[in-house]
Write a structure and sequence with these properties.
With about 260 residues, the protein is mostly beta strands. The chain has one domain. Strand 16 and strand 17 form a beta hairpin. The relative contact order is 0.12. UreD, UreF and UreG form a complex that acts as a GTP-hydrolysis-dependent molecular chaperone, activating the urease apoprotein by helping to assemble the nickel containing metallocenter of UreC. The UreE protein probably delivers the nickel. Required for maturation of urease via the functional incorporation of the urease nickel metallocenter. This is Urease accessory protein UreD.
Length: about 260
């Protein structure tokens, strides 16, 4: 049965951070569609932006995109005001939510959104593409919730692609929900409904990478593992029965205790 295309919402939000003396300014802060971008109180030399959702999104057929750049020497922190909920909407066509991050020389970017919730009958393809300079720093958190309380999840595909100094650092893709083989089996979620990861890229890890470490004594209550990558980076992955436990595990495993 063919899937109706559905017009959906087309929107791109843009953020650009630049160094100005000893601080970071935001010469570009342009919201669009469901994205309302707000400056918040800076922290030291780091500019802070909060993304507010001003309409239900993403819905089926939507094409949403966020572009954020930290220029040389700039320091940027981005979060969201609330969880993002993927909903079916008026069409069965999939929605896309693409995030593109660029971090230049001696710059840093913290991308720390609230969880993404895959509601029943939704169909979302989310991607995050990141380009880092050789001495750039990145902290990225991703938290996924498969279904709201008492309901099954929709279909969710996520992809994270990271390049550092023009070379691949990490490229992974996961698919959850209806028709995704084995997504709820013992090799993937094993019955849990919250999954997340914390990626930290820091040139300091070239000399002293953390050792592999497991967090959480009871698999039924969720666990996290910290793994050094083949580059100056660590990846923390976690599974948990709910978002509260998931965030606790990611925070406990963070080597810098953010």
């Amino acid at each position: 049965m063919p899937v109706e295309p559905g017009p959906g919402v087309r929107a791109t939000a843009r953020i650009r951070a630049a160094r100005a003396g000893d601080t970071t300014v935001l010469p570009v802060l342009a919201g669009d569609g469901p994205f309302d971008l707000r400056r918040t109180r800076p922290q030291g030399n780091r500019a802070r932006v909060c993304i507010l959702g001003v309409m239900s999104a993403p819905l089926g057929g939507d094409r949403l995109r966020i572009e954020a750049t930290a220029e040389p020497g700039a320091h940027l922190h981005i979060t969201t005001a609330a969880a993002t909920i993927a909903l079916r909407g008026p069409t069965t066509a999939h929605a896309t939510y693409d995030v593109h991050l660029r971090v230049a020389e001696q710059a840093s970017l913290h991308w720390l959104p609230e969880p993404l919730i895959s509601a029943a009958r939704s169909n979302l393809r989310q991607s995050c593409t990141i380009d880092l300079a050789a001495d750039a720093r990145l902290v990225l958190r991703e938290e996924l919730v498969l279904g709201r309380s008492g309901e099954p999840p929709g279909r969710l595909t996520t992809r994270l692609t990271v390049h550092r100094d023009g070379r691949p650092l990490l490229d992974q893709q996961n698919t959850y929900g209806p028709d995704a083989p084995g997504w709820d089996g013992p090799a993937v979620l094993d019955g849990h409904r919250a999954a997340g990861q914390l990626l930290i890229v820091d040139p300091a890890y070239d000399k002293e990478p953390p050792a592999v470490r497991l967090f959480g004594d009871d698999p039924a209550g969720g666990q996290a593992v910290l793994t050094p990558l083949a580059g100056p980076a660590v990846l923390i992955t976690a599974l948990a029965p709910n978002t509260l436990r998931l965030r606790h595990l990611l925070d406990a495993a963070d080597p810098l205790g953010r």
